[in-house]
Amino acid sequence: MASKITYLDGLRGLAACVVVVSHFFQVFAPSVFEGKQEIAHFAFEGVAARTPLNLLFNGNFSVCVFFVLSGFVLSWRYFHTKDKLHIYSSALRRYFRLAIPAVLSVLLAYVVIVLDLGYFDKIRQTTLSSMHDPYLASSNFLVMLQEALFHTFFTYGSAYNPVLWTMTYELLGSFLIFGFLLTVGRFKFRIAAYAILVVLLADSYYLGFVLGMALSDLKFSSRDRLAILQRPWITPLLLGVGLYLGSYPYVSIENTIYSVLVWKTPSFSFFVFYHTLGAFFILLALLNSSSLQSLFSRKLFSYLGKVSFSFYLLHFTIICSLGSYIFYQLHPHFSYGMSVVLTLILTTPFIFALAHLFYRFVDAKTLSVLGHWSKRIFDPLVRQRAGGMQAEKTKSM
Q1: 397 or 177, which is more confident?
Q2: HEC profile for the chain?
Q3: Confidence category of residue 375, pLDDT binned at 50, 70, 90
Q4: Tell me: the pLDDT tens digits for 262-279?
Q5: Between the CA of residue 66 and those of 26, 92, 265, 274, 350, what are the distances in Å?
Q6: Is the pLDDT of residue 389 over 70?
Q7: Are 300 and 21 spatial neighbours (Cβ–Cβ below 8 Å)?
Q8: What are phi and psi of 248, to 5 degrees?
Q9: How confident is the model over 152-200, as pLDDT tens digits?
Q10: By C-alpha distance, which of 150, 257, 169 is closest to 210?
Q11: Mean pLDDT of all residues in the chain?
């Protein structure tokens, strides 16, 4: 059985790129997120913010894609084999798989704070971004360590590296999946459990994990139930619906193509709900289309998938330090637009280079060590179980 599904990595890589673009926009074109004409720097911002053009920088939608993918990836081996050892192995490794790279990304941000290399605060009067300055966090090493090891994963903490707000969702969402599989994974009518979770988590980011797991269930349990959707016209429909819902804007939807999506209800997060549904339909379209699978399996997307976690963890710190410094130096000599373009051109290669090194020497090493660790623990159990099965078979002969 294959250890991974390449085209899913490709989709994750594309989503990671959109997150990076979104944070460039958040720093240098904040109007697309805040909907305030008075802070707009470019003519396209108003139109882009309220139309599907926001897919180019809709980082929240991309995060929802991450969550749906996690639900699918963390459960597919179990549905394929019905072997609970896959669950135990994944559960044992999950915190460390997330924490080791994430903690090092926090350490990088901490170094920026200690050495006073953060330039975001020096440019915010020019960019007009109201984004919180990530370098106001404590320079106390023990406070940083507590944030990195505990708050990041259990209280949605993100004081040093704001992108880490997703790590609590990733960790707790993973154990939501593991708990579901262990308790009702073989239950014939588990659709009732899915329905209950969907209702309870409708406007929560945890919905993405449930929907991803449900797709995995439909794809790999006994037979491929998604095969019924393999019609030439269905994939474009699914893709269109997914992109439409996923482009639900950050700003007011009044007088936009999204106004029909909202009904009167107290404290319901349509923003999260539609981004999660959009991610669900995008993954469904990908699972339904061999052409899309071939596209996202190509070398470029495969590579982006490999470095996506590293890319995600590091980019924000680089944008708010090196990127902001470059803009700070350029803006007195160039127009605002030219300064932003040059900052993007000069910063992006550095982000890719650092992400590549981080993947090679941190993320890939972490996966390798955890993989060997898991094998040492679970391979004897697999052999023991296989021996027991063989003994039973011999007795029955």
Answers
A1: 177
A2: CCCCCHHHHHHHHHHHHHHHHHHHHHHHCCHHHHCCHHHCCCCCHHHHHCCHHHHHCCHHHHHHHHHHHHHHHHHHHHHHHCCCHHHHHHHHHHHHHHHHHHHHHHHHHHHHHHCCCCCHHHHHHHHCCCCCCHHHCCCCHHHHHHHHHHHHHHCCCCCCCHHHHHHHHHHHHHHHHHHHHHHHCCCCCCHHHHHHHHHHCCCCCHHHHHHHHHHHHHHHCCCCHHHHHCCCCHHHHHHHHHHHHHCCCCCCCCCCCCHHHCCCCCCCCHHHHHHHHHHHHHHHHHHHCHHHHHHHCCHHHHHHHHHHHHHHHHHHHHHHHHHHHHHHHHCCCCCHHHHHHHHHHHHHHHHHHHHHHHHHHHHHHHHHHHHHHHHHHHHHHHHHHHHHHHHHHHHHC
A3: confident
A4: 988 888 999 999 999 999
A5: 20, 21, 27, 15, 24
A6: no
A7: no
A8: -50, 125
A9: 999 999 999 999 999 999 999 999 999 999 999 999 899 999 999 999 9
A10: 169
A11: 93
Mean pLDDT of 283-291: 95
Q: What does the block give as tokens for 132?
A: 């919180």
pTM equals 0.95
Q: Which residues contact 360 (CB under 8 A, 6 or more apart)?
A: none
**Integer Cα distance of 95 and 50 in angstroms:** 38
Cβ atoms within 10 Å of 395's Cβ, excluding its own:
7
CB 362 within 8 A of CB 100: yes
Tokens of 52: 């599907």
